Amino acid sequence: MSYLNEDEVAATAGPGVGPHPQPWPDDPRLDPELLAAGDHRNVVDRYRYWRLDAVVADLDGRRHPLRVAIQNWEHDFNIGSMVRTANAFNVAGVHIVGRRRWNRRGAMVTDRYLHVEHHPDVADLVGWLDAHGYTAVGVDNLPGAVPLEQTELPERACLVFGSEGPGLTPEMVAACDSLVGISQYGSTRSINAGAAAAIAMYTWALRWADQG
C-alpha cells in the first residue's frame, strides 16, 4: 500500500531508476529503501538513491544567496510553481508572506529540498530581510517599475512576487527597495506569475550564479 499523497505520487511518477544491483555501495548518504525499491523522484542523477536529508545538506553547501518572497493572500496555485523554480535555482530560501497554508500542488514536493520561512505580514518579512542584509526587489509591472533587463539585481536580493491577478499589495510595494517589471510585447496586460518568477530568477542567475 502506498502512503504517498496525490501530489507525492505525481512527483515520483517519472522514469527514474530501478533497484540498485547488489552489492550496494558503502555510502552513508544512500537510502536503503530507495536502493531496494528504486528511485523515481524528480531529482538529478547526482542524487539518485540519496536520503532526503543528505540531498538538502549537499544543496546547503552551495546555495545561491538569492531569496524569493511570495505574498499568499489568495491561496494562489502559482505559488507551487514559483517554489519549484526556486528549487531549480537552488535559492537560499523562500519566504511565504500572509497565510501559513499555501498551495503546494505545483511544487511537486520540491519544497522539501528548500528552506521555507513564513511571515504573517509584510513588516515581519522586512524585519527579517533587514536583519540578514537583503535588498527587497518587487517584481510587478506597475507604474514606476524599471525594466528588468535594464536593471542589475543585487547579489543579496530577495525577489518579491504577488498573487496572480492583483500582484503586489501597495504595502509590499512601499516596503521594497526597488521595483522592476518584465517587458512585454503582445496584447496581454500581464504574464503568469509563475512565468514571471522564472524570468526574474534566471535574470539574477545570469549575473550572479556560478556558471561552472
Automatic annotation (TrEMBL):
One of its GO terms (molecular function) is RNA binding. InterPro entries: Alpha/beta_knot_MTases (IPR029028), rRNA_Methyltransferase (IPR051259), SpoU_MeTrfase (IPR001537), tRNA_m1G_MTases_N (IPR029026). Residues 66-202 form the tRNA/rRNA methyltransferase SpoU type domain. One of its GO terms (biological process) is methylation. The keyword Transferase applies. Keywords: Methyltransferase, Transferase. This is SpoU rRNA Methylase family protein.
